[in-house]
Model the fold of this input.
Amino acid sequence: MAEDTQSTITYGIFNETAEYESRVALTPDIVKRLKRSSVECVIESNAGHAAGFSDEDYVKAGARIGSKDEVISQARAFGFVGRPDDELIGKLPKGSWVIGMLGSFTDQEYVNRLDKAGLVGVGIEKLPRQLSSAQSMDEMTSQNSVMGYKAVLKAADAYGSFFPMMTTAAGTIRPAKVLILGAGIAGLQAIGTARRLGAVVTAYDVRPAAKGEVLSLGAKFLDLGLDFSKGQGEGGYARQLTAEEQAAQQAAVDKKAAEFDVVITTAKVPGRKPPVLLTKAGVDGLHRGAVIVDCAASELGGNVEGSAPNQTIITDNGVQLIGAPDLASGVATTASNLLARNVADVLTHFVHDGSLVMDLNEELDNAMVVAGRDESTATKEEEK
Done:
């Protein structure tokens, strides 16, 4: 157990410093919501500006505005869109709680640094999302939904024709044919958005349950002639395919992709290298003017061979390959509203009688607390 001894918890938020980040981990509406749980808020000046929230908005909601140093000195729980860097870790008071997507699946060294600094790290990436009590905390679901929406808008903007069919005096323009690879939260949102724009949509996912979801949204399901009947992993995520399965999938997708004008890939495996769904051969098979949006592009790789994060590459055959890992940041106001609720609900889960308490016998606590687990040998029951 780790505990904040203050009767009222102070929750601090900083201005996110990542290059492509416009979101903020607290919105004025959530300030009001947290007050009902005995949580006061202090936020760094201008932290919400890029997301459309002024300092005045926060003050009216009941938050305090301060400098970064003032936030550090006043708060004992801190919420992040991403995670604090090493410099900030060194400044946070020992015993403070750090809540965000901490990358604990792949970066144990970072978790160790939180431990060494005496901080309690709550990694939302380890949220057991299948629990009904965890749904409002599920940052990955909320942000992937925004990502799927924005991916379609980005593709439509880059594509040189209309998405819907248009009948004009000069002739009829056929609708765009869009392929969505990955029918999880982002993929399903992309399907719905592309269909609302009038495209003819086809989608594919290795999970057996995905076919019914795709068809229910009015899209076609891409038949690759393959059977990955065990394609669903833990917590509702797609499992990592074997090397043989990936090779068979890639070859089939490469061949089918040539039929489409737009390809959007959304297959992420949390904390791991994304599976390659479209190889260079598949990219080369698309027609000139086709657009690919790779939502999984990252430093670890992407769903599309040759994609790069936050770069648009024009291939030799005239295909636009867009690496777009930060699409949710492009819808910063809505994304922040959703994310702030997720992070705040994680925080209040640990609030008991005006204190922050972890109970490692409780499933949510045991899953999400990745650092500071040995902060105290007391138990929640002993504290009571």
